[in-house]
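Hello Y.,

Per our agreement to keep a running log of every chain we model this quarter, I'm adding this entry. I've kept the format consistent with earlier entries: sequence first, then predicted structure.
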Amino acid sequence: MPHIKSRYLNGQRGTGYHASFDGIANGAIAQYDIVVAIGVDGDRIKWRKADANVAGRRAGVMGIADHAASASGDRIRIVSHKVIKSVNTSASTAAGYPVYLSETGGAWTATAPTNAMVVGTVLVDDASVGVVLLAPAHCRNAFDGDGVVEP
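Predicted structure for the entry above:
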């Protein structure tokens, strides 16, 4: 089993995040996409977009892309949680309600999909200046590849 070297774990001083991974993208990934670890490339973890519809992409170690990666093999920084501002959270009932991993790769939604997995919380409920705290590393109701709910 490969050992993840400490030089690939980055402290996030002044940004509110305790650590990040210096990883490798498996495909194009947009900033703030929810991603899941799928393997290693040398000493770095490989990440791809998480997806509520696809077994193997809806459970496991997850994070949020801190910046975009345009293609497979690009370096990418993954954080454990992120506050996303100025988004539409009007589909949510109110602040404090969950957001879910979407059936669209990398995205989140305020409406529970078929394979509902909580990946964050609505902090401000508003159509244009909504705020969401994404924390997929702390998700609940993850489905494994067999469709079995993992607590």
